């Protein structure tokens, strides 16, 4: 058994371990981790917004924050989904890595080589250097986001504007307590979870690439019709939660910019020919493909397995066909009995006159030929890409689902906004 994990012993999980947030198997206590994240990223800013009893331009930071669907969506929906996806994906990967060994898809000579690949991948996913880089980028992007909110002349819970009518961006406003906390901590958490997943996906794709370069025991007659690699589609489909979460983040952000930060209020200023609109459409198409592309790594091996199997079984079929023809020709001058072969009449619609001795040999040859025909039909159905339709559909549904509400908002807003047709 190989105990492989994309998350075990990385610096973040070590922190969770010190906080007592890992179970006996070394997996996160998902509910408690999510509650802690919501407390830090959303609840504390809410308390700070309520504690800062100020009002400018009839605006209350507390009221705005509590009804900010972008903050609610990101920190109470998106990040928790990404946290819950960790054990959901990791358990499937661990099971399937062991399946590679137990099913003898990897020969004994290559086992040690693959174990080294796994050990290298686990070391890479827990690398402290990449963890530090992710932390720096998370705080850096969070600070950049906060500065944008503090200088956009938009009166909201991030910052207050004393004279909104005369404010021209970029102009430094008065950041609220909640705005500072969101900039330093909340946004950093959001970005950190995304970037951490991004690194884990890269590590996993590296494992798949190296696996595809190895000599695998693939079988064209395997009942999964993928040469024995059908389980790879199960792994990739688990990333549907990741696609859903990132899609929700995109949809929530776009909706907030359209309906809250738009200068015209409820008027739709973002069309689907704009940069954000094109980005949303591109996400629906390319996000699922991003998790299907690694399966292309195995196209060469599967194609070669199918080709070699077709040649091998064709050769065997020709051998038995020649044997039957030879026996029939050898008995045509010594017929002593008429017998119908005990075979499927639809597959072998032939009535042959043979003697008793030769009939047994012909019958056995015909049975072998019938079995080969079934094998050959199975080989012809083999797929050279381990793409399962249901699993592929799951990925695309996860990508399009978050965008549907955005499209509905776009349609309804343009239908009911004066001057729009």
Sum up the overall morphology in one term. Answer: elongated
Distance between the termini: 64 Å
Rg measurement, Å:
31 Å
Mean pLDDT: 80
Number of DSSP strand runs: 4
- What is the oligomeric state here? single chain
Overall helicity: 55-70%
Sequence stretches where pLDDT stays below 50 over 5 or more residues: 263-275, 332-345, 347-357
- What is the number of independent domains? 2
Q: What class do helices, strands and sheet pairing give?
A: mainly alpha
Describe what this molecule looks like in 3D.
The protein has helices at 11-18, 30-51, 61-66, 69-102, 108-125, 128-150, 177-212, 231-238, 240-259, 275-292, 299-331, 356-380, 389-400, 403-416; strands spanning 159-160, 174-175, 337-339, 352-354. The chain is an all-alpha fold and 421 residues long. The protein has 2 domains: 11-303 and 389-416, no CATH class; 306-380, no CATH class. It is elongated and about 105 Å long. It starts with 10 loop residues before the first helix and ends in a 5-residue tail after the last helix. The model is unreliable at 263-275, 332-345 and 347-357 (pLDDT under 50).
